[in-house]
Design goal:
With 278 residues, this protein is α/β, with parallel strands linked by helices. It contains 8 helices and 11 strands. Helix 3 (65-76) crosses helix 7 (240-254). The chain is globular and about 50 Å long.
Amino acid sequence: MDARARRQADAGADDFAPFESAPGALDGGVLLICDHASNALPPAYGDLGLPRRALQRHIAYDIGAAWLTRRLAARFGAPAILSRFSRLLIDANRGADDPTLVMRISDGELVPGNARIDAAEIERRRRLYWAPYREAIAATVAAMQAAGRPPAILSIHSFTPAWRGESRPWKVGVLWHGDSRLAKPLIGALAAEPDIGPSAVGDNEPYAGGLPGDTIDAIAAARGLANALIEVRQDLIGDRAAAEAWADRLARIVAPLLVPAAIDAAGADGGPSRQAPA
């Protein structure tokens, strides 16, 4: 991006909100976040040189995750923070210094608008989009802690049915690292669903939890908050009705696990490092 385009991007930043915030009970004990909710790009960036079909793929956002997050937040009466920018602009679920923060190529798709990106442009995207999203989550957590009940954090994602030619057998995965208070009971409850079963629930699948600097690490783990990252397979939530049905199911399953006594009674232990989600 040249100097003129950068000035336009800065000038237009006020017209592009980097996050969506849904109100909810600050003392309700749970906060929903969605790092890859949108495939939108700020006007100054156009389409990053990509065809429309590319922006409809999983490389641009987590298909179905926004619908699922909004419905789940509504069912709990809980606050929710969702990103409003594509992960191709900058990945909200990467640490500030992660080399995959801005992808030049994703799942075989070249991203022309990122091909020659420099450190100044990465920093600009961090400042205008990545940082406000993270700050909104941190501010909501602080408000919930001040209300007297530190929240458990549920991070909602989705994953592709196949990756590099191999199908993925899981319907849903729960990612965690170091703190299993919420994750382990959730894995067990999902496995007990008659139409899911143990073989279709991923325990740190299709990725493992614990990517340094990701949103859970920076917000939840850093504050000692119970957390789980939930990944639902995209073909199961590819339309709004299906996504909301999954949200209703998750609300039923998760609600009993959010009781403070239930969280406090569960143990915490370590887990492996996570690979970069796709």
